[in-house]
Amino acid sequence: MSAGAAAMQWPAWPEVARVLSLADYNTRVVVIATTLLGVASGAVGSFMLLRKRALVADALSHATLPGIVVAFMIGAATGVAGGGKSLALLLLGGALGAALGGLCLVALRRSTRLKDDAALGIVLSVFFGAGVALLSSAQRMGQGHAAGLESFIYGKTASVVRSDAVLIGACALACLAAALALFKELRLVCFDEAFARSIGLPAALLDAALLVMLVVVTIAGLQAVGLVLVIALLVIPAAAARFWTDSAGPMVAVACGIGGACSAAGAALSALLPDLPSGAMIVLVAAAGFFLSALAGARRGVVRRWLRRRAYTLTVERQHLLRAILEAREERGADAPVPVESLERRRVWAPASLRSIAARARRAGLVASSPAGLALTREGLAEAERVTRRHRLWELYLISEASVAPSHVDRDADDVEHVLPPELVAKLEARLAAERAAMPASPHAIGGGP
Hints:
Elements: H1 3-7, H2 13-20, H3 25-50, H4 54-78, H5 81-84, H6 87-111, H7 116-139, H8 151-154, H9 162-181, H10 183-191, H11 193-198, H12 203-220, H13 222-241, H14 248-272, H15 278-296, H16 302-332, H17 340-347, H18 351-363, E1 367-370, E2 373-376, H19 378-401, H20 406-414, H21 422-431
Antiparallel strand pairs: 1-2
Helix pairs in contact: 3-9, 3-12, 3-13, 3-14, 4-6, 4-7, 4-12, 4-13, 6-7, 6-12, 9-12, 13-14, 13-15, 14-15, 16-17, 16-18, 16-19, 19-20, 19-21
């Protein structure tokens, strides 16, 4: 057994069952607190993502470190709040640090010509550097003990006690309630700020409310995932939800579900494997959820998009074949099967590609094959006439209204004919009333194709 395998002690099944059932009090407290935090992060992060301000959370989370350390130093020097180790005191300091970072960010944006990314980078690096320097000073203080402050950088859910969980849960629930109460207004500001201002909505005040929610969620998440990784809990669930829906309401709901599930799973894994940091586990589980959503998302997932594109490509290829056979019949003036070689030349098909397209059309009952070539069935003839009619109507429109040369119009129409909706076809027919009764004649020679 290798040294790494020996060091990693995998839990036995009874321990796994105890954690999953939340039988242990400490596990139950931690999982419930992190789950509420994940749900609130999904809601707030969705609006930040839609507002295109996701990286603001990163800058503000790093700005919390000097506030936390200063709060500890004040508490240790004055002897209040348990020597500075009170979570409420530390989170209050972190909130003030984040607020100061936000004010510096606004000041840089308004008083300088710096872009948003440069301002974010300056605030993030300067405040985090100041926090690290203050942390070194705090560890050399004669009063108090600053050893536990590093947990705010990387997160340590194992140190969460009941009072801490109540505070985290209260912050998360307050942010979730505020996000739901302001849902309509925030959605309107995210998608159309100019219209929101025109109907009297206080866009600046709503932005401020969203920033306050962001600070509260960030502060609440410090002990669970740490200031370095809390940005992931705010961004990843919202980004993953975008693969499942295009609507703001369902997106917020999905983001809340993903955030809550990933936080609970990460906290449970951290309880099963104590050597692994909780913040990293929560973020890794969230990353796994993101990649799963990117692959299998119902709206924008890679697999779904590939299937839609593949289905569209096959439909276009089949329609091209049907139109080619129909035009070959018109050219020959007979209903006899069209030789395969003639079809290959007509659209410059490769033999293997044409055989594959013809086989799919034959399985769909649109084409019949014989040694003499390919012929349209009754269903195939109806579909070919519909496709060809649309193609020629669009060709005639391009020639008469867009002044496209007849020698070039065939290729231009090829790109559009497959997506013409019925109402647009009706408008084309109304504009080209003379061609409404029957199949329009091709405005160019049909002996070849693009």
